Backbone:
């Protein structure tokens, strides 16, 4: 495809006090081989000098300073809408702690433009500290609608070569087609953080769009390493938002029963078994996530109430 015909890609990067990571991400984008690329950086009230350092180092980058924190979903929606206003044919949503190979964007666009009705494409994501170890080769949902990363923590030995259909792609780096966004909408900001990209991909697939993983496009992600242990906030959001996704997309009763049983077993184990004493804060977060789903309380996790804590303390 001649350079003059390359569709406009607008990258959207959300930064929260990660100045050096964001600058490294921008440097990797600038060093890439895709010729028709613009960038929007969303700054989430950073106090580390990011709002001055970013435009100083990259004058062509459009910096948007956010007025409120609406999480990964809501904050990125500001950038996605800005990218569409700029005329983007594709929107590249990136975490600030991602570094891209020089041909990462061009390979994503090549696949997206060349294979039927494709709505989202994602690169092969590697661990930053172990550059040959896969973090995600796309994501799948099992029969119980539990999500998993394909190839997670496997050493790359060429086991993933060709673009392939997946259920979802990692939100740390994904390329979304304009027409798909215009049809199905942006990220659902009720999720705030966690499961939002999975739900977006599911929504796109149900509208007839395809989601592909592109192993030839490579990025390295610093945020999640092989032995990553998420905190209680992740337990809260993963519990509440998984239930929200089941509800939004009309999961069958068998999936609801499986999810409910899984939550009940985990709560009981983390409450009654002494070996799980260290998981008490996660237990409280899971309980809170479940009750907030029932109360239809979305957005940022509120501080746990004393009454909620008492209900689960043995």
Residues:
């Amino acid at each position: 495809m001649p350079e003059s015909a390359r569709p406009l890609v607008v990258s959207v990067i959300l930064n929260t006090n990660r100045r050096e990571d964001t600058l490294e991400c921008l440097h990797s984008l600038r060093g890439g081989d895709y010729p028709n690329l613009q960038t929007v950086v969303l700054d989430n009230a950073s106090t580390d000098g990011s709002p001055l350092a970013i435009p100083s180092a990259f004058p062509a980058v459009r910096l948007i300073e956010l007025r409120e924190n609406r999480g990964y979903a809501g904050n990125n929606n500001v950038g996605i809408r800005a990218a569409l206003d700029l005329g983007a044919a594709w929107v590249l949503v990136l975490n600030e702690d991602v570094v891209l190979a020089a041909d990462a964007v061009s390979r994503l666009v090549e696949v997206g433009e060349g294979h039927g009705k494709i709505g989202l494409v994602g690169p092969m994501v590697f661990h930053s500290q172990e550059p040959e170890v896969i973090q995600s080769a796309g994501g799948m949902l099992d029969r119980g609608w539990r999500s998993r990363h394909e190839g997670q923590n496997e050493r790359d030995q060429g086991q993933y070569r060709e673009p392939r259909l997946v259920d979802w792609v990692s939100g740390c780096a994904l390329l979304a087609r304009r027409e798909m966004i215009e049809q199905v909408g942006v990220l659902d900001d009720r999720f705030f953080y966690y499961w939002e990209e999975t739900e977006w991909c599911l929504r796109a697939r149900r509208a007839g769009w395809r989601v592909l993983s592109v192993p030839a496009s490579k990025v390295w992600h610093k945020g999640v390493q092989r032995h990553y242990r998420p905190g209680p906030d992740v337990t809260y959001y993963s519990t509440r938002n998984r239930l929200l996704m089941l509800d939004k997309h009309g999961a069958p009763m068998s999936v609801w029963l499986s999810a409910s049983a899984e939550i009940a077993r985990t709560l009981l184990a983390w409450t009654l078994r002494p070996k799980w004493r260290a998981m008490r804060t996660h237990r409280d977060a899971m309980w809170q996530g479940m009750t907030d789903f029932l109360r239809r309380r979305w957005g940022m996790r509120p501080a746990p109430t004393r009454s909620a804590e008492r209900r689960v303390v043995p």
